[in-house]
């Protein structure tokens, strides 16, 4: 709704998603590492949709896994 959008905009919130909090909570509960990369699919202010960030998000996620794997193999946990 317009009120919801105005409320989050007034708080300078620029990312709205639903799954990350659950994923990060579950990984924390089980003592695992977790991370989230968000791609922009919708501009709720202008009501525009796209998929421009998908490939970049995949590349960032893949690079993060590579870095963490290299650190784990060296014995430096983060």
TrEMBL record:
<dbReference type="GO" id="GO:0003824">
    <property type="term" value="F:catalytic activity"/>
</dbReference>
<protein>
    <recommendedName>
        <fullName>Uridine phosphorylase</fullName>
    </recommendedName>
</protein>
<dbReference type="GO" id="GO:0009116">
    <property type="term" value="P:nucleoside metabolic process"/>
</dbReference>
<dbReference type="InterPro" id="IPR035994">
    <property type="entry name" value="Nucleoside_phosphorylase_sf"/>
</dbReference>
